[in-house]
């Protein structure tokens, strides 16, 4: 059962019948709690030292409860030493990650947070044990959760958590302790069981964060292994390369990163003149096989398959990498995955967005992940439901419909009531104990054609009034269309926000990064992987049924973890349809829509949504691609436009155009 994987984790082999019976009862009782994961450990997960000598005991960790040490052997010194070792190791981890000032030293918290049980099959009742060891009081619960996070490797940032319990909803969520669930913990810390491991999750389920944790574990476990972290998008690759050393510093990795020797962060293709610029270019250089440049009739998938064919002809083939981790796997096809498997000695980790795959009409039998992350830890569940509804047109003429198992794969519980279907999401740990009724998931705001500046400023005023501790970098402003009106709006916002609030504005499509202490303004092409408490999404054109527009709206709205504001033109007819549906979700906490007929389901199931089907001008597609890959030089952009006009017709495949532009931009850089 998926719930068993996601809410339960055990890091040892059960060694006796009595332990087995005990574990089964803990699992049965513990899994009745839909929000709190349960962990069974014989040592802190992040501790790389040898196992403890005493094997007849383990520890049960569950939020809102004490650490429960259960002994299956004789009472005496060995069990006491087991407890001492476990508690001392948590104390060491707390000191290493700067949590001593928050949780105190072990002698200060041991009595409050530790319980011990002598196991007896006749007397053991885990339900009673949980009741007897429940922690009450916000501050004690908070400290207990931090201790669990240290024991399970879910390391939070001590500076972010701070001291005490905040008194407002914004700071409560910003400082909420994030715990990995069982599925995430298993992915990070367990050894791979096969050559390719597939992770699928919704936006905000922490896929990239998990990959960073996995890289850190692989890098520190073996000082000889060679690791590659790759993706399709150039800007994302640059961003990931910056994030890795920041993450290593946060995780207190003491050894220096050996770039281009033990660790590479690079895009998938790369350029001929720089082998370390891409996975494919590195492979071609390392194995002395021809490097294929872009041509109109050949896709990257074809080129990867040709490279694989050449590698298969090499006698005594030796892998050039140990591990390859692929982010945003929905941007790739099987040829690239197979090539990576060939050159990786141990494992290829493939992480992608299950909603994007299902939305693009891939069946679950094709997706079939090893790890399914369908709990969105970034975004208020109401925001995620509203974003799905707008993206799929559920309140209007539906653009897409999922089968029950596909809804469930996306984290929904499906209920039927007459002709209506209800889609519920389970509450998540990040929003537990917080009165979310004080905020809206999504708020739709109409704006006149000449009123966007005042509408955005009014929205900021409202955010500031409701959230006195809000900071500039708590707000992201994202506009949909790459049009002059929006670029002018961004410029006006930069000056007006500085004048009105004394806040600095960071124009993201120019800087290509999120800067601390600044309010972020950008187009939709430069927000992947970012998150903010509040997001203001701007559309100056009508919200049509164009699949790329709907997909972008879904992506933009899910950048927030508290509230998303969607500003639409007042003249848009669908505002009056969308608003009641969104308000219902905000008020009731679930989606309620009329279920399509069987005939309509067949039509919707055949509504294949792929980037190759999007109707855009050649100029617009080229502009969008150059924004994505970070082409800022105006002269180079002009040259690219001239080249694309000469090479392609109006019905160009976007994938081919993207490869053409990337290749020629790489040549310009040489």
Describe the model.
It is built from 28 helices and 20 strands. α2 links the parallel β1 and β2 (38-41). Mean pLDDT is 84; it is low at 361-366 and 608-615. The chain is globular. α14 runs parallel beside α15 (334-343), α18 (381-392) runs antiparallel to α23 and α20 (452-466) packs across α21 (484-501). By secondary structure, the chain is α/β, with parallel strands linked by helices. The protein has a six-stranded parallel sheet with strand order 8-7-9-10-6-11. It has a six-stranded parallel sheet with strand order 14-19-18-15-17-16, with helices on both faces. Strands 1-2-3-4-5 form a five-stranded mixed sheet, sandwiched between helices.
Topology:
Layout: H1 2-7, E1 8-10, H2 17-30, E2 38-41, E3 57-61, E4 67-71, H3 77-96, H4 100-103, H5 106-113, E5 114-118, H6 126-132, H7 138-152, H8 158-161, H9 169-174, H10 182-189, E6 196-201, H11 207-221, E7 227-231, H12 234-250, E8 263-267, H13 279-287, H14 300-312, E9 321-326, H15 334-343, E10 344-353, H16 354-359, H17 364-367, E11 371-373, H18 381-392, H19 404-409, E12 413-417, E13 420-424, E14 442-447, H20 452-466, E15 475-479, H21 484-501, E16 504-507, H22 508-511, E17 518-523, E18 532-538, H23 547-557, E19 560-569, H24 575-588, E20 590-594, H25 598-605, H26 618-629, H27 634-647, H28 654-669
Parallel strand pairs: 1-2, 4-5, 6-10, 6-11, 7-8, 7-9, 9-10, 14-19, 15-17, 15-18, 16-17, 18-19
Antiparallel strand pairs: 2-3, 3-4, 12-13, 13-20
């Amino acid at each position: 059962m998926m719930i068993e994987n996601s809410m339960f984790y055990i890091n040892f082999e059960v060694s006796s019948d009595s332990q087995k019976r005990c574990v089964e009862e803990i699992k049965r009782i513990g899994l009745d709690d839909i929000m709190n994961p349960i962990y069974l450990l014989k040592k802190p997960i992040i501790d790389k030292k040898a196992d403890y000598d005493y094997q007849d005991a383990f520890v049960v960790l569950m939020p809102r409860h004490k650490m429960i040490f259960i002994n299956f052997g004789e009472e005496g010194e060995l069990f006491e030493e087991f407890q001492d070792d476990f508690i001392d190791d948590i104390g060491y981890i707390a000191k290493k990650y700067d949590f001593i000032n928050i949780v105190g030293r072990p002698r200060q918290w041991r009595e409050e947070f530790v319980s011990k049980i002598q196991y007896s099959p006749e007397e053991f009742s885990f339900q009673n044990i949980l009741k007897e060891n429940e922690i009450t009081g916000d501050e004690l619960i908070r400290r207990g959760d931090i201790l669990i996070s240290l024991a399970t490797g879910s390391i939070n940032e001590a500076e972010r958590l701070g001291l005490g319990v905040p008194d407002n909803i914004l700071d409560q969520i910003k400082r909420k302790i994030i715990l990995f669930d069982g599925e995430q913990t298993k992915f990070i810390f367990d050894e791979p069981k096969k050559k390719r491991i597939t992770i699928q999750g919704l936006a905000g389920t922490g896929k990239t964060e998990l990959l960073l944790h996995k890289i850190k574990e692989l890098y520190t476990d073996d000082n000889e292994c060679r690791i590659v972290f790759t993706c399709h998008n150039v800007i994302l690759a640059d961003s990931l390369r910056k994030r890795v050393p920041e993450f290593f510093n946060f995780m207190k990795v003491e050894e220096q990163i050996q770039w281009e020797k033990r660790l590479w962060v690079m895009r998938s293709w790369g350029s001929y003149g720089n082998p370390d610029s891409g996975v494919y270019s590195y492979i071609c250089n390392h194995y002395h096989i021809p490097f294929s440049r872009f041509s109109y009739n050949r896709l990257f998938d074809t080129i990867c398959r040709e490279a694989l064919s050449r590698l298969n002809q090499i006698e005594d083939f030796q892998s050039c990498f140990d591990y390859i981790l692929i982010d945003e796997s929905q941007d790739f096809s099987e040829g690239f995955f197979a090539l990576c498997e060939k050159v990786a000695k141990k494992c290829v980790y493939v992480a992608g967005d299950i909603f994007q795959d299902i939305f693009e009409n891939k069946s679950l039998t094709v997706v079939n992940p090893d790890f399914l992350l369908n709990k969105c830890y970034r975004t208020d569940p109401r925001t995620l439901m509203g974003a799905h509804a707008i993206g799929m047109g559920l309140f209007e003429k539906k653009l897409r419909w999922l089968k029950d198992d596909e809804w469930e794969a996306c984290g929904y519980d499906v209920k039927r009531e007459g002709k209506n279907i209800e889609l519920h999401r389970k509450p998540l740990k990040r929003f537990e104990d917080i009165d979310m009724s004080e905020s809206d998931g999504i708020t739709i705001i109409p704006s006149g054609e000449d009123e966007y500046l005042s509408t955005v400023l009014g929205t900021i005023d409202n955010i500031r009034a409701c959230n006195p501790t809000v900071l500039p970098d708590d707000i992201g402003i994202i506009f949909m269309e790459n049009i002059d009106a929006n670029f002018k709006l961004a410029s006006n916002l930069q000056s007006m926000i500085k004048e009105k609030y004394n806040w600095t504005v960071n124009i993201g499509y120019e800087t290509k990064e999120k800067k601390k202490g600044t309010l972020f303004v950008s187009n939709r092409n430069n927000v992947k992987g970012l998150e903010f408490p509040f997001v203001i999404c701007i559309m100056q054109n009508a919200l049509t049924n164009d699949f790329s527009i709907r997909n972008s709206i879904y992506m933009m709205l899910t950048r927030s973890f508290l509230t998303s504001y969607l500003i639409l033109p007042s003249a848009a007819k669908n505002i009056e349809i969308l608003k009641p549906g969104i308000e219902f979700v905000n008020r009731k906490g679930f989606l309620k829509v009329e279920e399509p007929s069987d005939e309509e389901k067949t039509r919707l199931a055949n509504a294949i949504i792929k980037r190759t089907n999007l109707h855009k001008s050649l100029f617009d597609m080229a502009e969008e691609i150059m924004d994505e890959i970070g082409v800022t030089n105006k002269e180079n952009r002009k040259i690219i436009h001239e080249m694309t006009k000469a090479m392609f017709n109006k019905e160009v495949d976007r994938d081919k155009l993207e490869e053409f532009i990337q290749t020629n931009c790489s040549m310009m850089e040489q």
